[in-house]
Amino acid sequence: MKRPGPLVNMTLALVALCGTLVLLADLFFGVLVDRSAQTRDLRKHMAESLAVQVAALLQDDNRSALQRTLDGVAARNADVRSIAIRRADSTIVLQAGDHQKAWLGTGGDASLLEQVTVPLSAGGQRWGAFEVAFRPEPGLAVTRWLTQPLVLTLLFLGTIGSLVFGLYMRRALQHLDPASVIPERVQGAFDAMAEGVLVLDARGRILLANRAFRGLHPDATALRQGRPLSSVAWLAAALPADPGAHPWVQAMGERKPNAGYTLEVNQGEDSEARQLVINCAPIADAGGSVRGCLVTFNDVSELHNANRALRETLEALSAAKGEVERKNGELQRLATRDSLTGCLNRRAFHDSFERMLLLARAGGQELGCVMVDIDHFKAVNDTHGHAVGDRVIQEVAKKIQECARVADLVCRYGGEEFCIVMTGIDKQQVFAFAERVRAKVEHDFANGLREVPGLRVTVSVGVDSFGGPSLAASMLLDRADQALYRAKRGGRNRVCTYVGTASGRPAISQTAGDDT
């Protein structure tokens, strides 16, 4: 169980002392009124006054007047339950109210809070007694006891006094000089340290601050000891709004060190912010109770600035590298791509073709070659000019690339001639691809070239496909070119496939097409 702190002990001691003084004052001087005794005396005085009147009426033997008097007194006083005149032999002479039920007997002439007896005498002898039964006080006995002035005073001192004395003692202790318990040699040792050092009490108030800490901020030079560290403005501006999340509070609450907490402290409009690393270690006594916290502030601004400069340099190098790679990519594209269509140029095409050929031989795959030529392209140039001719070449290249796969090689082989090489497909698939290109150019070309309405462009296509150890690039290109030649001679706007014969002359299979 955690022992109460000095503030709680001192507050309880002050409350107990005040309570003792109140009890002594009441004991010797009766400063607090006993409400029960006061009520008992008042009722006794009223009964004695009535007894005098009753005695006079008894002497006159005026019973009717006496009965009216008793009834009137019982009716006017709400506290009176019953009134009776009783002879010495216990016989009730007159009564008002149900006195038999209300009167419990007092065991003599002694009066109680709820029953008052006044003796009546005649001829120097005891004649009887005048009895008054009062109603009991409302509420429980515990409630009536708690509402006694003495009890209320002690309860008030216990609650309000604890709060007032606690606030006063906390304020008084806060204004005491906590540095008086720290020897000068200890302060000197901390001042010699390069890191900012603070010693806090269990409530997070500053007991010691060394020279290095006071140099961390312009406002730290006037830092007052005894002030809660979480309320220091230039630190609080960089800390979480919840004081429970501050590193020294967490270290004391969890009873374990809290290291590596980073903080950026603003030095003002004209100064650069400082980067601080905070390390906190709780200070415990011999019984294991946390009595304070040791907090160090390591200024790593120079290291932070060096790391930032290094990061900026690396980012600049990375950006330069990216720019170089982009430029190299552009150069590579310029070196390998046709500037008008974006297709491979012949040199890049032949390099890629040789690599594809080696992979096809190793994998036992077939290669397909498609040669495409724009029909009557010279007439387009002569009629519409070279600018329109370039646009025709671009649109045909676009239609071919739309039909081709990513891995296929698409090359601008000549002025208006294109070559496509693909792998992993048979003759029927190559032929289907070629037919798809021819149809796309014939039917969709006008949508891409609106500068010359009504311009009709078609292509002739030659196809060949084979594989095996005898597969050679030049042979494949030559056969596709022969098939293209036959397609043009056969009427253009058609696809022809190379088929070898026993005589060595090609047999051509071709699609039907318009003679353009």
According to CATH, the homologous superfamily of the largest domain is Reverse transcriptase/Diguanylate cyclase domain
Number of helices: 16
C-alpha end-to-end distance = 106 Å
The CATH topology of the largest domain comes to Alpha-Beta Plaits
Helical residue percent? 40-55%
Overall outline: elongated
Largest β sheet strand count, sense and barrel closure: 6 strands, mixed
Task: State the total count of DSSP E strands.
Answer: 15
CATH class of the largest domain: Alpha Beta
Proportion of β residues?
Answer: 15-25%
- The mean pLDDT is 83
Structural class call reads alpha+beta
Structure report:
With 516 residues, the chain is α+β, with helices and mostly antiparallel strands. 47% of the residues lie in helices and 21% in strands. It has 16 helices and 15 strands. α16 links the parallel β13 and β14. The longest helix is centred in the middle third of the chain and has 36 residues. The radius of gyration is 58 Å and the shape is elongated. About 1% of the residues have low confidence.
